[in-house]
Write a structure and sequence with these properties.
single chain, 270 residues, alpha/beta, 7-stranded mixed β-sheet, 3-stranded mixed β-sheet, 7 helices, globular
């Protein structure tokens, strides 16, 4: 995930924490698309990664995924949330993609590319620390492939983080990841929030379950949650490769718990 500079939504007040949010495969953060956020500023909306429909949802595909994620950060701001938090949206390089499914991705993982992405996450964390933000006030996370990279980057990070999250994600390099963890394992107790739709056919629900189970067995602190969606036509409950309103609420609570505002506390608290 090296390449163009990350897009940053800065803190509104004193910058005391950072949330680094990685996007899904094939997406990029394009400032020219951000105007979309104003149209939805007052709506109560869910996020849907691929084309589809849902009650209380905005329908979009990966080409405008970036705008909606930045809108989410701005929407939290309009509600008075996370005013001390800077949101960092790293960009990935433009590369040809020949694989057609996440099945291909998991069976033929590009280890060198994955490790470059992990290193970029670690460099972004170090850059925030250099700005004066303690690593334990930094959260690393993302959706889909971005969440997978964030999980790898988080559990192998040499610095203690505030939290790690992955929505509709899975574990990369699962046969090698434990050998990549620093000896002192600074993030063994760092909370990991995982959310997954129960009918996800892109990043399969079972992948999310297995990821959570493996991380728990290896000693990490994982909260795995399943999200169904209620169909307006059949009332069937099954959420595809999407993020549910309740999932976003839970993510908001997770961020608030892990990096609560300092308010008027002295600068020395950082």
């Amino acid at each position: 995930m090296s390449g163009p500079a990350a897009l940053v939504v800065p803190a509104l007040k004193r910058h005391t924490a950072t949330v680094i949010v990685s996007h899904g495969l094939g997406d990029r953060y394009d400032a020219s698309k951000i105007a979309i956020q104003g149209s939805y500023a007052s709506a109560n909306l869910s996020i849907v990664e691929l084309a589809g429909t849902s009650i209380r949802s905005v329908v979009f595909n990966q080409t405008i995924d970036s705008s909606i994620r930045i809108w989410l950060a701005e929407n939290w701001r309009r509600r008075g949330k996370f005013e001390e938090v800077s949101f960092v949206f790293p960009n990935a390089p433009t590369i040809p993609i020949t694989m057609i499914s996440f099945d291909d991705l998991q069976q033929r993982e590009d280890e060198s590319g994955i490790l470059r992405s992990r290193d970029t996450m670690h460099n972004l964390i170090s850059a925030e620390v250099a700005k004066g933000i303690p690593s334990n006030r930094i959260i690393l996370g993302g959706f889909s492939q971005g969440g997978a990279v964030s999980l790898l980057g988080g559990v192998t990070c040499p610095q203690k983080l505030a939290g790690i999250f992955g929505l509709s994600s899975y574990l990369l390099l699962r046969g090698k990841i434990r050998d990549m963890v620093p000896t002192e394992n600074p993030n063994k107790e760092t909370p990991i929030f995982l959310g997954h739709g129960d009918a996800d056919l892109v990043v399969k629900y079972e992948w999310g379950q297995n990821t959570a189970q493996m991380l728990k067995e290896w000693g990490w602190n994982v909260d795995f949650r399943t999200y169904p969606r209620v169909s307006t036509e059949t009332r069937d409950r099954n959420l595809p490769h999407s993020a549910d309103p309740q999932e976003i609420d839970h993510l908001e609570a997770f961020i608030n718990e892990r990096v609560p505002p300092f308010g008027e506390k002295a600068q020395e608290t950082l």
